[in-house]
Amino acid sequence: MKVNLEQSIHLAGSNLGKYRHVCAFFHNQDQEDKVVVPFFKEGIDRGGKAFYVSYPQMYVHLFHELSHAGIEVKLAEKRGQLEVKKPEEVYVRDGRFDQDAVLALIQEVLRKGAEQGFTLTRYVSRMEWAVKYRVGMNELLEYEARLNLVLPNFQDPVICVYNLAQFKADVVIDILRTHPMVIIGKLMAKNPFFVPPDVFLQELSERRANTRPGTVRLQKHEQ
Fold first, then answer.
1. Could you read off the pLDDT of 56-111 as tens digits, one per residue?
2. Calculated CA dihedral for residues 18, 20, 22, 28, nearest 10 degrees
3. Mean pLDDT of all residues in the chain?
4. Quick check: helix, strand or coil at residue 123?
5. Which of 2, 67, 122, 182 is most buried when burial is the number of CB atoms within 10 A of its CB?
């Protein structure tokens, strides 16, 4: 797909090009704010939409930070430029993670943004729900890889935010391999460790065949 240069996006010190599936690894909230807040502000200022998936306590924090950055939050919500959802409304409806349903919903969100007349939808999801609901490692990785098969149909950026304190090192490495772009701390770069989705999905299939049944834990530390 040809990328419209007029829709170039500034993110974490760089311009985001045609690869718009990004994993962002942060150690703390301050690092996350310094990336996500200006990313959303730029989008809203340009007539785009900000779509955020996290828990309610984070909505309050995000709204405060956006307001401090000069965004009229209530007005942006009223216009449909700022939309927030809980993970249970997107990823684990009825307490179950259904990859097919989630992939369909994300595409619906991106299509709806265009239908509403927004230049782009900037989609950001904090991924702690995967730990809370004890999603299997391979299941999460398969979802992230499959997302690379559908996102080339859109120009909208999708950022998956991972708190490094919540995920084991081997899981982080595999997550890295499912995203063409990566943010570590405050800088973004093209990911040299990215594996094309068809190759990665084949690897996962072979890995499953050689693994005993059961759920592989994502969590780094007991909560």
1. 999 999 999 999 999 999 999 999 999 999 999 999 998 899 999 999 999 999 99
2. 110
3. 92
4. strand
5. 122
Q: What is the pLDDT of residues 183-195, one digit of tens each?
A: 998 899 999 999 9
Residue 63 belongs to what H/E stretch?
helix 56-68
Instruction: Please state, in angstroms and rounded to a whole number, the distance separating the CA atoms of residues 78 and 76.
Output: 5
Within the chain, strands assigned E span 9-11, 14-16, 21-26, 49-53, 82-85, 121-126, 158-163, 181-184, 187-190
What helix, strand, coil percent values describe the chain, rounded to 5?
Answer: 50, 20, 35
Provide the whole-model pTM: 0.92
Alpha-carbon Rg for the chain in angstroms: 17
User: Do residues 219 and 196 make contact, with C-beta atoms less than 8 angstroms apart?
Assistant: no
Over the stretch 142-168, which tens digit does the pLDDT of each residue have? Answer: 999 999 999 999 999 999 999 999 999
CA separation (Å) from 80 to 13, 74, 75, 134, 137? Answer: 27, 10, 9, 32, 34
**Phi, psi angles (nearest 5°) of residue 30:** -60, -45
**For 8, what's the count of Cα atoms within 13 Å in the CB-facing half-sphere?**
7
Position 78: which residue type?
K
Residue with token string 């609901």: 133
Give 101's contacts (C-beta < 8 A, 6+ positions apart).
Answer: 93
pLDDT band at 3 (very low <50, low <70, confident <90, very high): very low
Q: Where are the domains of the chain?
A: 18-209
Angle, helix 29-45 to helix 56-68, in steps of 10 degrees: 60
CATH architecture of 18-209: 3-Layer(aba) Sandwich (3.40)
